[in-house]
Design brief:
single chain; 233 residues; mainly alpha
Length: 233
């Protein structure tokens, strides 16, 4: 697949003379169904390295990986998974497909929690604020500075994130994705209060940078398993 694509013979529209889509699906099914813990990036890169020195074969690792994840998306839909749950998992650009099913099941369980929708909406808002801040080249603190937190709601959120982080980290280390996502439910009240009471883009540059750092830490924590903003309706 890597070599054929690298020669410029990739699928176009309905044409796929070398059946790369079918081959990609076959590889995805083997990795998923046999629970093979292989890195897609490393495996494709290894294949690409076989063409080192051949100027005719361009690097196609990124394109082939995208093709494989697209085939994975279709396979998961056929298996009956909810599209929003699929997108939540695939948004993190998974590299080890053997963990995809477990993450999907964790997202499914999380979506059933009463806190899920509020946290998904808050995460979406958080990601949007961070994206806009990046587009505007807003400065972000390297580390959180408690002395700059003058609102009780931001103090409470910083403490809540600090309390939940070790629980999530430990769960992820054990591949307990359901446990990791369920731990996020404890953040709901603090997150709601923060967005209700705190102006992230404060006039004071240092305070603003500190709050952006807090949101970054929150987003990183919430998106460790999947991009839960995809669950927002």
């Amino acid at each position: 697949m890597v070599g054929i694509w690298g020669l410029g013979l990739q699928p176009t529209g309905e044409k796929d003379p070398f059946a790369l889509r079918r081959h990609a699906l076959g590889v995805v099914r083997m990795l998923l169904e046999k629970q093979l813990p292989l890195s897609l990036q490393e495996t494709l890169s290894h294949a690409q390295n076989q063409f080192t020195g051949n100027a005719q074969v361009k690097n196609s690792v990124a394109e082939v990986k995208t093709l494989m994840l697209d085939r994975l998306r279709g396979l998961l839909k056929e298996q009956g998974y909810v599209p929003a749950h699929i997108e939540a998992v695939l948004a993190n650009n998974p590299d080890d497909l053997s963990e995809v099913t477990a993450k999907l099941q964790a997202v499914q369980a999380f979506a059933g929690l009463p806190e899920a929708q509020d946290l998904a909406a808050a995460n979406k808002r958080c990601v949007n604020i961070l994206r806009k801040a990046t587009e505007k080249n807003e400065a972000m603190a390297e580390v959180l500075n408690p002395a700059l937190m003058n609102e009780s709601a931001e103090q409470a959120l910083a403490q809540a994130v600090a309390d939940v982080r070790p629980v999530v980290t430990a769960a992820l280390a054990q591949h307990d994705y359901t446990g990791a996502l369920n731990a996020l439910a404890k953040l709901r009240a603090s997150v709601d209060a923060f967005f209700a009471d705190v102006m992230v883009m404060a006039d004071d540059a240092a305070v603003r940078a500190n709050r952006l750092k807090l949101l970054q830490e929150l987003a990183t924590l919430m998106n460790g398993v999947a991009d839960i903003s995809q669950l927002a309706v």
